[in-house]
Amino acid sequence: MSTLRSLARRILRQAGYMILRPPLGVPEGLPSYLRRLEQAGSGPLHVTCVDDDTSIQSQLLRTLPPAQVWFCSPLELHRESLPTAPHGGRRALILGLFPAISPETAADDLIGGDWDALLLRAQLGSFWRHEADLASWIERLDRHGFELEDVISPPSLSPVQSPADSIVIAARRRGPHQSETSAGVGRERIMEAATFLSTPVIDSVFARTLTGRRSFGFSAGIFNPGAIIEDGNLRLLARGETTFWRQQQADETTYFSAVQPCNLSWDPVAGLSSPRSCTWSQAPTLPSWRAEDFRLFRYRAETFTNHSLISRAGGAAVPGRSVEVEKLRCRVALSRVDFRSSQLAFAGFPELDIPHCAIEKNWAVLTWDDRLFLAYAAEPFHLLELADWKRLRFRTVTRSAIRFPFSCPGQVLRNSINPVDYDEDHWLHVVHRVYPGKQYCFWAILINKARLQPAYALSRPLARGGQPFPASVLYLCSAIANPDSIRFFFGVNDAGLGTAEVPRRKLDEQWRRLPA
């Protein structure tokens, strides 16, 4: 079956088509949605359509009698008066999102009317060109008592001119009418739309790429850097790969030997230093292993890294044998870091008071005075505190269900960076979700130090694949807090690293308090 799907994709690509992944489930089309909306009322449905799109107009006239539809061009809205509300029945507004109808101008007066439902339609290209921003519309609708319900455009095979394709998003007044769709797969479709159609906080103005493939002699690149300030210098511990994944995949011994921890420093003026390869003064006692994706933290006047340690179940690697992914094991480990000697010393694996899986990644470490915490999961928020340093034993201090603005049933949120001090009362943390095709999307939250609970979250994505770099795979690895800005470091396309500096005022404009 997978071979047939692969063949179908290849044939479609050769014919000039790209495949848009249909959302979970099959969303209903506009006619079906309008009929359902009318059936839920006590009279006829009246639709005001402020949209020049001929497809939308045709669907309306095929679904409803002309007397129940009123059309107006967005460009002529300032010359027109909206029709008066009918007696009985329901009212819906279809609004085409154009630069002429922005959240800052006529839109507020328009959506403030007595509507039962509101539908937003826009071309996908208008979001990618930043002419439209779904996050701004979500906030505007929320203030007027609306909640996004579903994406109702049907899935399709789209030609390469897909920026011209339309998307229609339905919003309903809050109340008991909310359907199961809006709480189930409809929520997943809405969250996917909000993720990819909202302008991220980090854009190309703030970002730049520092390395790529073959940088500093690493054929497959140097990337995914942990970052920390030590002795007044900004230090990075990155992952260098000497061979490409395809070559590693074909030979187990190559896979376990191809990775090299790299010690670098970075300065905004001088730039990136040449990397120094790190050696292991104390290594794990495993027959075959590799360490990758380093995060850095300071504890008791020493620098440590929490990182993934991958080993092979069932013995040592065999030359010439291909990597069997199902036989790999991954655990989060702690190691000491000495940047001066460029050495790492394996300290051990954290012991938790909960069961964990054979493949574990994305744990985060944070420190507060002499206390050491481990963030195991983002949702539910699960935080453990160090109880025994010699055994690296951690015990749970909080586990709570937190509903973030970007929460979505069935879609896991994972930790991205080691949290850093944002202000006296909060840590800045970053979490992510992975969409098909390794499309990572990141959000930022603030954790209250006294309550050990998330207290604020960004109202829009922090960054995602395609933003701020033209990269299909973007991975946010670490952050450095400065007085007026936060500097982030990224892995780019599993080949290079980049950095972005975001003014704190830009973040402060987007924080939203979470329910207590």
Summarize the structure in words.
The chain is α+β, with helices and mostly antiparallel strands and 516 residues long. The protein has two domains: 2-196, Rossmann fold; 207-513, Glycosyl hydrolase domain, family 43 (Tachylectin-2, Chain A). It is built from eleven helices and 33 strands. Strands 24, 25, 26, 27, 28, 29 and 33 form a seven-stranded antiparallel sheet that branches. The radius of gyration is 26 Å and the shape is elongated.
For the record, the CATH architecture of the largest domain stands as 5 Propeller
How many runs of DSSP E, i.e. beta strands? 33
Instruction: Return the domain count.
Output: 2
Q: Count of helical segments? A: 11
Low-confidence stretches are 177-182
CATH third-level topology of the largest domain: Tachylectin-2, Chain A
Strand content: 35-45%
Biggest β-sheet description: 7 strands, antiparallel
**Approximately how much helix is present in the residues?**
10-25%
CATH class of the largest domain: Mainly Beta
Query: How far apart are the first and last residues' alpha carbons, in Å?
Result: 48 Å
Principal-axes geometry comes out as elongated
Q: Provide the residue-averaged pLDDT.
A: 88
Radius of gyration: 26 Å
The helix/strand class is: alpha+beta
Task: State the gist of this model.
The protein has 516 residues and is α+β, with helices and mostly antiparallel strands.
Topology readout:
Layout (H helix, E strand, L loop, with lengths): L1 H13 L2 E3 L10 H10 L5 E6 L3 H10 L5 E4 L17 E7 L10 H5 L5 E7 H5 L5 H10 L2 E6 L5 E3 L6 E8 L6 H4 L1 H12 L10 E3 L11 E10 L2 E9 L3 H5 L2 H6 L1 E9 L3 E2 L3 E2 L1 E4 L6 E11 L2 E11 L15 E11 L4 E6 L15 E5 L2 E8 L2 E8 L4 E8 L13 E2 L4 E2 L4 E10 L3 E10 L4 E6 L4 E2 L9 E8 L3 E8 L3 E8 H5 L2 E3 L3
Parallel strand pairs: 2-3, 2-4, 4-5, 15-19
Antiparallel strand pairs: 1-7, 5-8, 6-8, 9-32, 10-11, 11-12, 12-13, 12-14, 16-17, 17-18, 18-19, 20-21, 21-22, 22-23, 24-26, 25-26, 26-27, 27-28, 27-29, 28-33, 30-31, 31-32
